[in-house]
Amino acid sequence: MAAPDAASVPTLSSLGLTPHRPLVLVDVDEVLGLFMQGFGAYLAAQGLEFRVDRFALFQNIYRPGAAEHLEMAEGKKLFDAFFAGHCDTIEPAPGAIAALNRLARSAEILILSNAPPQAERLRTAWLRKHGLEHPLILNSGPKGPIAAALVGQTAHRTAFVDDLLPNLDSVAEHAPATATFQHVADLRLQPLAPRSDRHPRIDDWAELVEAIERAVRA
Ligand SMILES: [Mg+2]
């Protein structure tokens, strides 16, 4: 993927962040918030079943009792509708809010979420509802290019947290000095989510916040 157009990447100061402290980029779904649980509840309200029996998304949506999952296009439609109208209903991941509040004492925090553009209003409202005043950037595709453009604006140490290995690998490739951490919040997903020796896997936020603090300490 090409580097994002420099003009399209906001400056840290325009986001209300200072380049004079470490910078931590944090994902939302399955990191700060229990997306699978919330999306599952939304699907159940539509009379559908969300079976978390593999690390997938659209392939996990079924009509009740069906052996074959829903068409991918139909799953995508439900996914978009969830983000447009319901993504503020998800529960915070256990320990996530307290961990971010602690981290904010020593680092700048930027929320970097891969979600459709129509999620912006509700996703921002969700963060504020839980007392998280940090700026939000919605991205699509691998997160390395935008992460590199953001961390390139600070001379301080930087870290990145995500549940998905493609995003973690992308950041490791584009911003090799940034410490990467994998966190999978959903208890049902934890045993299913692939892990990699490249990125410490820490599913407990109390432990993760300490590891991040160690990584960004000057
Ligand atoms: Mg995620």
CA distance, first residue to last residue? 31 Å
Strand segment count: 7
Uncertain segments are none
Please give the CATH class of the largest domain.
Answer: Alpha Beta
- Give the full name of the CATH homologous superfamily of the largest domain: HAD superfamily/HAD-like
- Overall average residue pLDDT: 95
Percent in helix: 25-40%
What compounds are bound to the protein?
Answer: magnesium ion
Helix-strand pattern:
EHEEHHEHEHEHEH
Question: Strand share of the residues?
Answer: 5-15%
CATH topology of the largest domain: Rossmann fold
- Main sheet: strands, sense, barrel: 5 strands, parallel
Order of strands in the sheet with most strands: 5-4-1-6-7
Q: Whole-number radius of gyration?
A: 17 Å
Number of H/I helices = 7
CATH architecture of the largest domain: 3-Layer(aba) Sandwich
The structural class is alpha/beta
Textual characterization of the structure:
The protein is an alpha/beta fold and about 220 residues long. The protein folds into two domains: about 150 residues, Rossmann fold (3-Layer(aba) Sandwich), CATH 3.40.50.1000; about 55 residues, no CATH class. It is about 35% helix and about 15% strand. It contains seven helices and seven strands. The protein has a five-stranded parallel sheet, with helices on both faces. It has a two-stranded antiparallel ribbon with strand order 2-3. The longest helix is centred in the middle third of the chain and has 14 residues. The radius of gyration is 17 Å and the shape is globular. The two termini are about 30 Å apart. The structure holds magnesium ion (MG). The site of magnesium ion has 7 residues, from loops.
